[in-house]
Amino acid sequence: MARTRAPERTLLPGDEPLSLLRKDGSPVDDSPLAMPDDDVLVELHRRMVVGRRFDTQATALTKQGRLAVYPSSRGQEACEVGSVLALRPDDWLFPTYRDSVALVTRGVDPAETLTLLQGGWHLGYDPYEHRVGPQCTPLATNTLHAVGFAHAARLKGEDTAALVMLGDGATSEGDTHEALNFAGVWKAPVVFLVQNNGYAISVPMSKQSAAPSLAHKGIGYGVPSVLVDGNDVAAVYAVVREALVSGGPTLVEALTYRIEAHTNADDATRYRTSDEVAAWLDRDPVDRLEAYLTSRGLLDNERRAAVAAEAEDFAASVRAKMNADVVPSPDELFEHVYATTPAHLREQAAVLREELA
To answer: What is the pLDDT of residues 130-177, one digit of tens each?
Structure first.
């Protein structure tokens, strides 16, 4: 039997991450990427500022007992906002637990976004309203969801791509490798955005992978891969936008850093130094874009103050919604498990109602 081979494609990522803006906000002259339009850049800035304020507000809610846990994405705003704004209206987002800012950027109500982390419903929003899959808590399970969804959409003749977000630790999970394999075989329109923030909880990259980069992991599956500066929102937007319209799978590794601990239950000082954190604060994605916009005359003090005020109003609305006590119905324990509730669950529900009466 004759063996067939896939046609040759450019699969290797570059040695250096692609970028459009240096850490001081000056443009990279020889970048192969196209700079987004001015109106897009201004919107990227606004969404990052609002997203960061939402993130700090959510962190504060854990200290007030309003949230059970919150995994902050402070420092990763370029990945969260740049990739989501690159989505077309019909595309779908498959986020993980650290991607609350991505959900809010996509338009999901912040209180509904935080329902999972509050300990209420496992899914607090309608996935179809904004084309956002459930926030994935188990590592990497959303990669297979995204590939299956994108493949099915193609079979139905729909022009839909899927963006799946995962962290560096998720690339060590078997689900990611199965998803990359199926995406490569089916040429599924899926963008795997790996936010490499340096640590899988407390495990550094050096103890996770011997690959030259996580982007190299796409090669074995025939999936083109790109390495991008994950603190450069213009570059993230440009790379993800191009990948979404490519018609096939792409693995994007975005080099970034989480400034806060893994969650509010973690002590990051046990496994990383303050000097390391300070070095990444110097590469702040918001400051970088602000410097560029200011140099171009696209951002002045008045505009900066207006965006800051909008962010404060947004945080106030989040506080108001989250400070309202929710009194769940005990019957909800038995809802949405089966399409038709079986007899033994109906009996258990009746017993519970009788005991609570």
So the answer is: 999 999 999 999 999 999 999 999 999 999 999 999 999 999 999 999
Q: Are 114 and 74 in contact, with CB atoms under 8 Å apart? A: no
Burial class (CB in 10 A: 0-12, 13-18, 19+), 5: exposed
pTM score, whole prediction = 0.93
What's the residue count for the chain?
357
CB under 8 Å to 182, separation ≥6 — which residues?
144, 147, 148, 151, 188
Report d(CA 229, CA 35) in Å as an integer. Answer: 14
Alpha helices in 159-214 (DSSP H): 174-186
Nearest alpha-carbon partner for 257 in 79, 119, 93, 25: 79
pLDDT in tens, 346-356: 999 999 999 99
The encoded tokens of residue 189 equal: 């329109």
* Cα 23 → chain centroid: 22
What order do you get walking across the sheet with 225-229 strand by strand?
Answer: 92-94, 162-167, 190-196, 250-255, 225-229
Task: List beta partners, residue 225.
Answer: 251
